[in-house]
Amino acid sequence: MNKISIYDVAKLANVSQSTVSRVLNNYPYIKPETKQKVLNAIKELGFSPNEIARGLANNKTNTIGLIIENISNSFYSETAHIILREARKYNYEVIIIDSESDKENFKKSIDSLMAKRVDGIIVASTRMTNDIIVNLIDKNFPIITYNRRIYKDGYNSHVVLDNFLGANMAIEHLVKLNHKRIAYISGPLRYSTFYDRLQGFLSSINTYNLEVDEEIMYMDKLEYKKVYDFAKKLMNSNNPPTAYFSSTDNMALAVMEAAVSEGLKIPEDISVIGCDDIDISGNSFIQLTTIAQQKEKMATLTIEKLMKKISDKSNEEKVDIVIKPQLKLRKTTAEARKEVT
Amino acid sequence: MNKISIYDVAKLANVSQSTVSRVLNNYPYIKPETKQKVLNAIKELGFSPNEIARGLANNKTNTIGLIIENISNSFYSETAHIILREARKYNYEVIIIDSESDKENFKKSIDSLMAKRVDGIIVASTRMTNDIIVNLIDKNFPIITYNRRIYKDGYNSHVVLDNFLGANMAIEHLVKLNHKRIAYISGPLRYSTFYDRLQGFLSSINTYNLEVDEEIMYMDKLEYKKVYDFAKKLMNSNNPPTAYFSSTDNMALAVMEAAVSEGLKIPEDISVIGCDDIDISGNSFIQLTTIAQQKEKMATLTIEKLMKKISDKSNEEKVDIVIKPQLKLRKTTAEARKEVT
DNA sequence: TTGTATGCGTTATCAC
DNA sequence: GTGATAACGCATACAA
Question: Which residues are registered as beta bridge partners of B291?
């Protein structure tokens, strides 16, 4: 391919190879005319520096890794879009890895990223306990957890939503609409997002003197079909919930589809509230009321903090950013039906 | 960070550094016991090879680039998911770049990818004429165009949908439902997807003896709001179309939203058919009839062909894969209303 | 202000 | 089978 190296440029410009390197790196003390000669030679040869070699010499690759669960999931793809854009501002490229949040996969993902010597890593798919991340933080490797966090004293390195508060807001909204029997849909508790939301849910249930019924709580793998089936089952039960709080918008869609298939009207018959506020939730045909993440703000902050860690290796400052969620009122929640008593 | 190199391993195992390299690369003729010694040392030190150095020595990075327009767009994110997964099977990582398909951006994207010495590139956001790609193909650099193609004799290197046929299928479907006035929504003609679909549209219009009316054709930048407004305008015109063929599902959603806002029922009042079959299109609240891409097949083939090009540099075989689309019947199309004549 | 020499961590080409 | 040693393309400490 591009077989021209810094040496070719040097020869053509009649200077040494190090001089070329210097102009490449904007070294200040170069005679303007030799700088010009070099620049000309570079242009004439169409030379562009080999970032790999540069990385080897520098110990810096100008690329970061982004580990997410599944890029085809709107929440992640919308986030990735912002991260890509922000990283680019710092002249960084990003390697994205879908890692399904499976433990073995996660390790492999980190390994390949480390082998490729990325300058930093953003992970959006960790469990609450994750020794690999702990280990990396110990080594002072630039790594920030996005959306989810690990829980370990002294290991703060995350930008996340205030998920406890988010759940509070959702339940409060529902309670004000007179809902008393609220189904809870979330993923496994080993993820901080779901763990925190559950705590928030429970605390709200408590403050409003509602009853906790595990029968109407789903806390398993977030597979569309499973949640769909679960919701259908609830809708057919003796004492069906009047409202559903779903930990992700995507799963709220599953609940909504279940309702359709059961001939239930939303929000007349049941209310549904989600979490995330993915793009499609605002669509006229969906109109999902939801607890919105501030993706733009979160992603931007994540990159900013990561870049700071990268550029200033000695900086061991913790990153502990918790963003306030927002209730986005749309059309899937309404006053609870009066029960026939 | 990981300061241990192949030399440290060599020292510990009491062999030369080249021997270590050999076991790393599975060189066949090594005495089993020395191999074992080396393996032990590697494990003991927790050594993992530096891919950057390896890349420099090898001229091979085991990473490819993927240039798309916007990863937050479902069509691309769903594609990216498959590509990531397939690339991983070949032990490849992928750098994703959102490049908004702007010309200057595109050049920059290619430049950074080349500077990072990726082994190959998949681009899903090219115009029909693109000298940069031509140039790369000339140099026999592994590059494949996905979804869109460039048109230049002898420069076949793409896997795309048969968009001409796709448009035919859409119009045929609509015509069978007795629609005669069909609006056409697509992006700019400098993209092969839209160009080909337009040709297919026109040919169908012709074979069914319908009238071409530029007033009901949109062929501009695919911005949600613009398409939404365009559709609203048409719906309020004297002679409104009874059906809409949209070149992307996403824009079909815009049309559908416009219909809602105008109090029009789908499919009773107007029919809408899309292109792509993104995940959300199958949702009960959307149920969009569409011309489906076979993303799984297309993405898998793309990686396969790209890997072949990478591993066999001398192979100058063209790749010219055109996939048949499928009509996915859902609920947004129906018999045209009888006009009051 | 510029050139020389060395190193970054591998692979590859020679020898032995 | 294995060990020196020279690339790979650049950055940089040290000289000049």
Answer: B275, B327
Q: How far apart are CA A289 and CA A174, in angstroms?
A: 11
Distance between CA atoms of residues B258 and A321, nearest Å: 39
**Bridge partners (DSSP) listed for residue B102:** none
Q: Give which of A103, A251, A275 is closest to A190, Cα–Cα.
A: A103
All residues at 6 or more sequence positions from A10 whose CB lies less than 8 Å from its CB, including other chains: A16, A17, A19, A20, A41
- Tell me whether B61 touches chain A (CB under 8 Å): yes
Rounded alpha-carbon distances, angstroms, from residue B302 to A46, B79, B82, B248: 30, 11, 10, 21
Strands (DSSP E) along chain B, which ranges?
A: 63-68, 93-98, 120-123, 143-146, 157-161, 182-186, 217-219, 243-246, 271-276, 289-292, 319-323, 326-328
Q: For residue A30, what are its two tokens?
A: 């170069």
Indicate yes or no: strand D within 7 A of the C-beta of B30.
Answer: yes
> Measuring CA to CA, which residue among B221, B214, B204 is closest to residue B164?
B204
Spatial distance between the Cα atoms of B63 and A115, rounded to a whole number of angstroms: 12
Extract the tokens encoding A240.
Answer: 């069906």
What secondary structure letter does DSSP report for B219? E
Residue partners of A133: CB distance under 8 A and separation at least 6: A123, A126, A143, A145, A150, A155, A157
Q: At what angle do helices A74-89 and A295-311 cross, to 10 degrees?
A: 40
CA angle A221, A226, A229 (to 5 degrees): 150
Under 8 Å between Cβ of B151 and B189: no
Instruction: Decide: CB of A6 under 7 A of nucleic strand D.
Output: yes
Among all protein residues, pick the one whose CA is nearest to the C1' atom of D3: B16
Residues pairing with B327 in the sheet: B291
Place of tokens 């440029």: A9
Q: Residue B86 and residue B42: Cα distance in Å, rounded?
A: 29
Q: In what order do the strands lie in the sheet with B93-98?
A: A319-323, A157-161, A143-146, A120-123, A63-68, A93-98, B93-98, B63-68, B120-123, B143-146, B157-161, B319-323
Mean pLDDT per 10-residue run, chain A (341 residues)? 84 94 92 93 93 94 96 96 96 94 89 96 95 94 96 96 97 97 96 97 96 96 96 96 96 97 96 96 96 96 96 87 97 82 46
Helix axes B192-207, B163-176, angle to 10 degrees: 40
Are A70 and A96 within 8 A, CB to CB? Answer: no
Angle of helix B74-89 relative to helix B295-311, nearest 10 degrees, comes to 40
Could you check: is the Cβ of residue A56 within 7 Å of any atom of nucleic acid strand D?
A: yes
Question: Shortest Cα distance from A129 to chain B (angstroms)?
Answer: 22
DSSP category for residue A97: E
Start-to-end Cα distance in chain A = 80
pLDDT tens for B149-208 read 999 999 999 999 999 999 999 999 999 999 999 999 999 999 999 999 999 999 999 999
- Strand, coil or helix: what is A322? strand
Chain B residue with CA closest to A142: the answer is: B1
Backbone angles phi, psi at A159, to 5 degrees: -130, 120
